[in-house]
Amino acid sequence: MNLSLAGAASAEPAAAAPRYHGLDWLRAVAALAVIGFHSGIAYTIRPFPGLAWPVHDPHPSSSVDAATWWVDTWIMPVFFMMGGFLAAQLFQRLGPADFFRHRTRRLFYPFLFGCVTILPLSLYAWLLGWVVEERIPLKKLRTLSLGDAGRNMWGVGHLWFLEYLFLFCIAAWLLHQTVSRITRPRPGVVPTAFGFRLSAFHSPLAPLLLAVCSVLALWWDPQIVIGFRHAWHPLPANLLYYAPCFIAGWWMMHRRPQRRAGWRFALAGLLASPLLIAAALPLIHAHAAIELTGIPRLAMVALFVACGWTTSLAALRLSLAPCTPPPQMVQYVSQASFWLYLFHHPVVGLAQVALHGSGLAAAAKFVIVWATATALPLLTYEVAVRRTWIGALLNGRRDQRSPSPVLQTPTPLPQPAESLRPAA
């Protein structure tokens, strides 16, 4: 996002799939990390190119800057990989028609809800910050006539992730429908998603090939993640950058390697991640000042993608390891992660505006903003979301009865057709 999305049904009786408790940990950590990432943007050494943000601290923190850029390399790739992993499970369990309905209900409807309720809150939090920094007069809060000041403001904001993830799921569904019509299975043959295979997709080198696509996309337009582009519609460079992450998650679902080499790679990826961001950071700072070209640009995007992909693949791989259920607090944060993602954005903006004129160090402001933008959404989740129609919209009605995570592993899960399983 053979594309061999494994069989939508199996002739064999469905075997119970393992419960990936590690995904609860990954969702909880990723939800807190994305809040931390947004909390740190105001305190980076240089503003993100093209990103409209409520305030930027005149005395930034180098440690917050490094942590923010590091999280920026992997936070959205890991979300798209998890999204691809779940989509592959759902497609296999539900089949094409129910998969389409499920993704519409759990992605598109929450996207519309966020556009109507959350985006206006973020808009006024941002404009309030611009008033505090004297970039616009107070009366603009009423008229919204922002002129040149608002050229990077209009779009779906942080909700772009839901828009793209839904688009990737629908693209997978359309591809299956198209190829199924072209290659109809013979009677007695177990149907497969798309009806064909590409051996490269089953190769251990598949993630490397996919990562190269992300490198090309980032070289084309570094502002995909080394900055930001606001829009109401998906952008081609962004699609090329994030679709491979979605495909990698789908690949991980069907491959699920058990050999020790997989664990060694995951641990090596986590250890290499700080070294890669340390090498990329000077180039990122230079690019944020004056756009890089030539070899420095290629080096920057290669290091950026290498850091993001090694960290994301390692985190997803480790989350699939057999483990005991996490503590209740971790499961709760995992279940609340969808609401945390939606609601933290305006809270971050308001908290950064409130602290802008204080004499606190940037690192202290960052910690306060992060804590506030975590605690308040969790409080509102418990009081006004978890047991209401909003919780049912975000998590499904089944999740209102248990602390299971938002993107929980469906059980039971049909296993891929025997002919499509990778060799041991």
Quick recap of the structure?
With 424 residues, the protein is mainly α.
Describe the fold and architecture.
There is one protein chain. By secondary structure, the chain is mainly α. It is built from 12 helices and no strands. It starts with 21 loop residues before the first helix and ends in a 29-residue tail after the last helix.
Mean pLDDT: 81
Note poorly predicted spans: 1-17, 188-200, 399-424
Query: What class, by secondary structure content?
Result: mainly alpha
> Strand portion, in percent?
under 5%
- N/C terminus separation: 26 Å
Q: Using the CA coordinates, give the radius of gyration.
A: 22 Å
List the helices and strands and how they pair.
Blueprint: H1 22-40, H2 62-94, H3 96-132, H4 140-143, H5 160-182, H6 206-220, H7 236-255, H8 260-289, H9 294-319, H10 328-355, H11 362-385, H12 389-395
Helix pairs in contact: 1-2, 1-9, 1-10, 1-11, 2-3, 2-7, 2-8, 2-9, 3-5, 3-10, 6-7, 6-9, 7-9, 8-9, 10-11
